[in-house]
Write a structure and sequence with these properties.
The protein is mainly α. It contains five helices and two strands; from the N terminus they run αβαβααα. The longest helix has 13 residues.
């Protein structure tokens, strides 16, 4: 995740990091780019809600059951519809759905 966020940042993208308190120390193993929005949240449930609220788009990297759970939650939040629309504001689209 750190490598992807660094690449997005280096390409001019805005990076937001949402980290549960329990992972706060281990998440800092890799230096973060200077200009990053970081949110420390209580737990994984709050993290998922915050990710859905903040995201314009989402990708999933190979992981475990937690990654699968996050994919399910993101998909469910969009009524089971996953769409890739270049330039679209998915937050506004989701509000209208």
């Amino acid at each position: 995740m750190g490598i992807v966020s660094k690449a997005a940042h280096d390409a001019g993208g805005h990076v937001t990091s949402i980290i549960p308190k329990i992972f706060q120390k281990s998440a800092r193993a890799m230096p973060l780019p200077q200009k990053i929005t970081e949110h420390i949240v209580e737990d994984m449930l709050v993290r998922k809600d915050q990710m859905i609220f903040e995201a314009d788009a989402a990708i999933t990297l190979p992981g475990g059951f937690g990654s699968l759970d996050e994919v399910y939650e993101m998909t469910e939040a969009l009524d089971g519809l996953v769409v890739a629309l270049p330039g679209a504001d998915l937050k506004e689209w989701a509000k209208a759905a």
